[in-house]
Amino acid sequence: MSSENKKDEEMKTNKVLAGKTTRRNFMKNLSIAAAAGSAGLVTGGCAGSATSEEAGLKWEEYFKNNYRLMTQKEKDETVARLVRLAKLRDNRDIQMSNQGPHENVLFGYAFNISRCKGYMDCVEACVQENNLDRKSKTQYIRIFEMDPGQLDPTTGDGKFHHEVPVDGKFYMGVQCFHCENAPCIKACPTKATWREPDGIVVVDYDWCIGCRYCLAACPYWGRRFNWGDPQVPEAEVNVDQHYLGNRMRMKGVMEKCTFCVQRTRKGKLPACANACPTGSRVFGNLLDPNSEIRFVLANKKVFRFKEELGTDPKFWYFMD
Amino acid sequence: MMTTNPDKGIVAFVSDCMRWAFTGGTVFKIYLAVVLILMVMGGVAYSRQFQEGLIVTGMTNIVSWGLYISNFTFFVGVAAAAVMLILPAYMLKDKDLQEVVIIGEGVAVGALVMCLMFITVDMGSPLKVWHMIPGIGLFNWPSSILTWDVLVLNGYLALNGLVPLYILYCNYNNRKPVGWKYMPFVFLSIFWAVSIHMTTAFLYQGLPARPFWNNPLLGPRFLASAFAAGPAVIMMVLIAIKEQTTYPVDINIFRKLNRIIVVSAVINLIMLFSEVFKEFYNFTHHSLSAQYLFFGLDGHDSLVPWIWTAISLNIFGTLLFAFGPSIKYRPRYLMLAAASLFTGIWIEKGFGLIIPGFVPSPMGEVVDYTPSSTEIMITLGVLATGALVVTLLIKPALIILRKHKEDAVETTASC
User: Based on the structure, what is the number of domains in chain B?
Assistant: First the structure.
């Protein structure tokens, strides 16, 4: 049933794609012409070829389409432009992927609340991996210290700052739950956020207008806004990037956990699951009957947060 | 009778309107200067926000909408309230209200301009706004309520701009407006007025993530409070016109507005009481936002003085309107009543509605929000722009209407 739906979705996207061809070409031609013009303007027709190249690339970037409507060729072109811009602007050599989802993959996550000790290695790994803004201390993952007798993280302490583990406490991690029926996607006025076929809810940072309606709509506080220009020390920049993942964001756009799309589509674990010293984090393909996540769902008692809202998250909690 | 008069033409119309809009006495010039200074200050503040990002505001990832969206919400109501004049004036052929319906429409246009500006200044990436334009961008309609709001607000702006423009242009040329050319749009604008405010309510009401907003009474209450606050604004404008100009405003108009305001304000208070009862009779997890608003939560109580001021002003204004002397026109009394009610609803429906929706956060965190000085300056700039738009629309409109009336009297006399 769900795979049929997926097919439908794909067909719809293709249809839209076909319909947009003329406009796309028009916009592209326009942007190339304008780029040439603006390049001339910026440089005054002489010297400073780097500046004019940068201006031209920026101009083309400004007029590019929503990522979902791009052909593979256009996706490659925008990635090439962004790589070049990183070099021109920050003298930084990055690799950027636009790798799509794999067939028969649906990512899911399970979190063992009896194992987590609140060490926060996951949070640190996430910050490093995803180039999160150090200035505003943006974090996708929150760990809540919980009193026994409670299973709702809103009753816990999300700002604890002391030696862990504390006797009699347990720990619960929250992040974007990658809902199948995500209120944020419905809310977005420009279709700048969507659910990929492998279940990852992503944001096209270049398409987001920054209205923050998705942030208001998310019942899990899974989204973060760039209130200012995000800053990452040059030495700490993760140059292994993905268009829909950890590439550098800009001010005024929304971002969120992407299940480390740049890692997981290459078959690696997300940084948080990779970093966890206690083995509390289980990540895998829900469509693979031999995966660990399927084992957890089949053999453990699991529950989800705010199940009553009907969001159908792909993130479960379980106990040993 | 006067249809044979030749048109003076669009150019003359526009230049005459501009002339009438900007000429006036000393009081008017001071007013104009104040408004322009506020606009410039707002512009300077906005250029800073544009460069540095929304980090210059008091908003955070927890309270992610603030002063801008609060004001947006309130002024959608003011815009919608024009229907309370349009309905009786055009549909019930109420002679008194026909005289001032143009003022209601002018206020609506000004309010809508403010709404669109508040939305724009709240955007993180305003240069990308073309992504939302149907055709060249991607418009997530009908899924996103925000796209509905964009459609209804712009549609209502067009309706409230074009209908009065047509009528004024006819009057300017001493022609009688042709009914079938504009009445369908008047009809449409009546339904449309309700829709703009219901849609804006649905923006919030449709979010299960925010229990404080996820409440079926929100839409109807938006309407009731709008139909009290909107006519209150219009009454204030009318008092200013009656006191400051020679334009005749009949006392009956104030009596009728008074009646509209009382009925709406009482319904609004009943609904407010109903909401408060639901939140506090059996206190649930979902009542925490209301507790934060009315009494404070975990030591955070920045909204408490505001909401009690708002409710006091609300009740005070309602009582003044309900028990005031209806026979005599007392400008100061009415001004006080209208200003109290307007301010009360402004605070309650702006700050008092938007901020508690975010507190506590979906993860249970409680923080306070205080708008920054930049945010306040931008807000004042937008409000000043709205005031200027209203003024520049109403001034020439009243002159045209008056000339038309005098001409009509002369023509009948000479016949």
Answer: 1
Q: pLDDT per residue over A277-302, tens digit each? A: 999 999 999 999 999 999 999 999 99
- Does residue A22 register a pLDDT over 90? no
**A221/B127 touch (CB, cutoff 8 Å), yes or no:** no
A219 at B interface, C-beta within 8 A:
yes
- What pLDDT sits at residue B390? 95
Whether B64 sits inside 8 A of A225 (CB atoms) is yes
pLDDT tens for A88-126 read 999 999 999 999 999 999 999 999 999 999 999 999 999
Helices of type H across B245-370: 251-281, 288-294, 304-323, 331-349, 351-358
SS3 state at B115: helix
The full set of domain ranges for chain A reads 2-93, 97-320
Q: Which residue of A has its CA nearest to B50?
A: A252
Non-local (6+) Cβ contacts of A219 within 8 A are: A183, A306, A309, A311, B208, B209, B362
B377 located within any domain:
yes
- B123 and A211 within 8 Å at the Cβ level: the answer is yes
- The tokens describing A50, both together, are 């780097």
Structure confidence at residue A32 (pLDDT): 52
Q: CA A260 to CA A245: how far, in whole Å?
A: 6
pLDDT of residue B4: 46
Top CATH class, A97-320: alpha beta
- Is residue B148 in a domain? yes
Report chain A's mean pLDDT, rounded to a whole number. 89
What single letter denotes the amino acid at residue A44?
Answer: G
* CATH code (residue B178): 1.20.1630.10
Q: List chain A residues with CB under 8 Å of B120.
A: none
- Cross-chain residue pair A219–B139, CB shorter than 8 Å: no
Find the domain containing B275 and state its range. 10-401
ipTM of the complex: 0.93
**Chain centroid to CA A189: how far?**
18
pLDDT of residue B166: 93
For residue A70, pLDDT over 70 is answered with yes
**Chain A residue closest to B135 (CA)?**
A23
pLDDT under 70: residue ranges of chain B: 1-6, 326-327, 410-415
Cβ–Cβ gap A189/B132 under 8 Å: yes
Determine, for residues B209 and A219 on separate chains, whether the beta-carbon distance falls below 8 Å.
yes
Q: In whole angstroms, give the CA distance from residue B182 to residue A150.
A: 63
Classify residue B191: in a domain, yes or no. yes
Closest alpha carbon within chain A to B52: A228
Supply the pLDDT for residue A33.
Answer: 52
Q: What is the 3-state secondary structure (H, E, C) of chain A?
A: CHHHHHHHHHHHHHHHHHHCHHHHHHHHHHHHHHHHHHHHHHHCCCCCHHHHHHHHHHHHHHCCCCHHHCCHHHHHHHHHHHHHHHHHHHCCCCEEECCCCCCCCCEEEEEECCCCCCCCHHHHHHHHHCCCCCCCCCCCCEEEEECCCCCCHHHCECCCCCCCCCCCCEEEEECCCCCCCCHHHHHCCCCCEEECCCCCEEECCCCCCCCCHHHHHCCCCCEEECCCCCCCCHHHCCCEEECCCCCCCCCCCEEECCCCHHHHCCCCCCHHHHHCCCCCEEEEECCCCCCHHHHHHHHCCEECCCHHHCCCCCEEEECC
pLDDT > 80? residue A14: no
- The per-residue pLDDT for B179 is 87
Nearest chain B Cα to A138, which residue?
Answer: B61
Identify whether the C-beta of residue A216 lies closer than 8 Å to the C-beta of residue B357.
Answer: yes
Strand partners, A255: A224
Tokens of A66: 């929503």
